[in-house]
Amino acid sequence: MKKKVFKIVKNISPVVILIFFAIFATCIGTKFIWIGSVFERKCSSIDISILTKIRLPRIIISIFCGALLGGTGAVFQGFFRNPLADAGIMGVSSGATFGAVMTSVFGGVFSFSLNLFVSPITMFAFLGAIFSGVLVFAFSKIFRESSSVSLLLAGTAVGTFFSAVSSIIILSNQNQMHTFYAWTMGSFNGKGWNDFYIFLIPSIVAFILLELCSKHLDVLVCGEQSAMALGMNYNFVKNYVLFSGSLAAACAVCAGGIISFVGLIAPHVVRKIYGPLHKVLIFQSMIFGGILLLVADTISRTVIAPSEIPVGVITSLVGVPFFIFALVRMNGDVKK
Fold first, then answer.
1. Tally of CB atoms within 10 A around 149
2. Residues 247, 259, 290, 27, CA torsion sign
3. Distances (CA, A) of 37 to 16, 23, 45, 59, 115
4. How many Cβ atoms from other residues are within 10 Å of residue 82's Cβ?
5. Residue 123: phi, psi to the nearest 5?
6. I need a surface site. Which of 32, 130, 228, 316 has the fewest CB within 10 A?
7. String of DSSP letters for 116-177
8. Whole-angstrom Cα distance, residue 52 to residue 26?
9. Which alpha helices (DSSP H) does the chain contain, by range?
């Protein structure tokens, strides 16, 4: 009985923590606003606008973005059987950057119609991320081997190409360089409900697809050949994982730009607490990813308020030491 209760508490505690941090983040900012005063009708109209139109959509977007990155990292690490894999490994982040900087070339053509719903830079980034995923999928088909190495090679090639082209476009448009720089560093500044609506449905689809990857990834733990011997259609699984991860990463970069290390850190922490079973690992990685990015964004907008630090800087400050630690530990395991 005690073990059952402990298991239940263990499983739901991350959700409780996420809700607690969300409430806390809603209250703090340049001006502290106690959320309870809204229900007590002691808030001014300005305070209500700050809560409902500025802080609340930003908090929800950061949670969704962190959950998408955490889930994508768990799926890619499971598929590639590489503990250092995350969304950037498929070139999706570079594709999103390419789409964002392309607004300097084509953004003016669609700016009027898009601004009615969402900023052109957000829409172009989403399309760029999806396009990158499609290219990786197409190039991986060139390789005759069904190995996941083909996906890694294709993702690296596509990501490098898009990064190079994006750099050329940024350097040739210095008037907009600050906007592109903020995008590449990751930021939720100025995000509102319209930005949330544009990626809400694709995000829900991505969450479902990522969770459904679990049964395939648990079989792949024993290796590709063994999985195929057990009756797995490896080509189908490869395409399914690529599509699911690319869609999730595309939604994430559409929401907050390029944010590194969330997809690396969250699955590692969850794996230590809950074990390697992907049915639990993927879901909890989403929750921990949401917590991590929510905390990082809260720090980014409050530590030097009213100015902001790009949230990608905060995640990198935490992620780089974590990455080095994981790399050293993995190298030590290999030597053993």
1. 12
2. negative
3. 22, 13, 12, 19, 34
4. 14
5. -65, -45
6. 32
7. TTS-HHHHHHHHHHHHHHHHHHHHHTTSSS-STHHHHHHHHHHHHHHHHHHHHHHHT-GGGH
8. 9
9. 2-27, 36-39, 45-49, 56-80, 92-101, 103-115, 120-140, 149-171, 177-185, 193-212, 214-220, 224-229, 234-256, 262-274, 278-302, 311-335
326's CB contacts (< 8 A; 6+ apart) are: 83, 84, 264, 268
> Residues 6 or more apart from 48 whose CB is under 8 A from it?
38
pLDDT of residue 16: 93
The structure tokens listed for 262 are 């969330």
**Residue 111 pLDDT more than 60?**
no
Domain of residue 83, CATH code = 1.10.3470.10
Which residue's structure tokens are 């991350």? 14
> Which two three-digit tokens encode residue 112?
């009027």
Total domains, the chain? 1
276: CB partners within 8 A, 6+ apart: 221
**Is the model more confident about 304 or about 222?**
304
139 is in which domain, residue-wise? 2-335
DSSP string, 315-327: HHHHHHHHHHHHH
CA distances (Å), origin 258, targets 99, 126, 289: 12, 12, 15
Report the C-alpha gap between 48 and 281 in whole angstroms.
37
Between CA 180 and CA 240 the distance in angstroms is 32
The pTM assigned to this predicted structure is 0.85
